[in-house]
Design goal:
The protein is mainly alpha-helical. It has two domains: about 70 residues, no CATH class; about 60 residues, no CATH class. It has eight helices and two strands; from the N terminus they run H-H-H-H-E-H-H-H-H-E. A two-stranded antiparallel ribbon has the order 1-2. The protein is elongated and about 65 Å long. The two termini are about 30 Å apart.
Length: about 140
């Protein structure tokens, strides 16, 4: 039943449209192939035999199914020097600057905002908690490649 619905969605689509990523990073073709590989689809055994092998991406970014892997691009930024400095300052300040160190280690785009909130308002318990929450928020997704 699920395989039939998946095949129905693919009918009449160009290959580009079948492989185009959705907002969640999947694509219709990959979903149908997944349904066929785990479910009892009439063409599932043939498909499993055709695509047997590891499901990791090869050097061209394609899975064993031949479907291109999508890469999610986030606002995470690497700042190794800031992270080391933030850790040292957090240790020397007895944990007072811990939210800034967490933000720097995670590569948050708002690292310096966390620093200023932590430095200026961290002496109030609420300000420190706000800085901590700012430092552990999820990275924003900027796009899918």
């Amino acid at each position: 039943m699920a395989c039939d619905a998946g095949l129905w969605k693919l009918e009449g689509l160009a290959e580009y449209d079948a492989r185009r990523p959705t907002p969640t990073g999947t694509n219709l073709l990959g979903l149908v192939i997944h349904l066929a590989s785990v479910g009892d689809c009439p063409f599932g055994a043939d498909l499993r035999a055709a695509v047997a092998g590891p499901s990791r991406a090869d050097r061209h970014g394609r899975t064993a199914y031949g479907v291109p892997m999508s890469r999610i691009v986030t606002d995470q930024q690497g700042r190794p020097v800031s992270a080391v400095v933030a850790i040292v300052v957090a240790i020397l300040s007895g944990g007072y600057m811990l939210p800034w160190a967490i933000a720097a280690l995670r590569g948050n785009a708002n690292t310096w905002r966390v620093f200023w909130v932590n430095l200026l308002l961290g002496w109030t318990v609420i300000g420190w908690i706000v800085a901590l929450v700012m430092s552990i928020r999820e990275h924003r997704i900027l796009g899918i490649r």
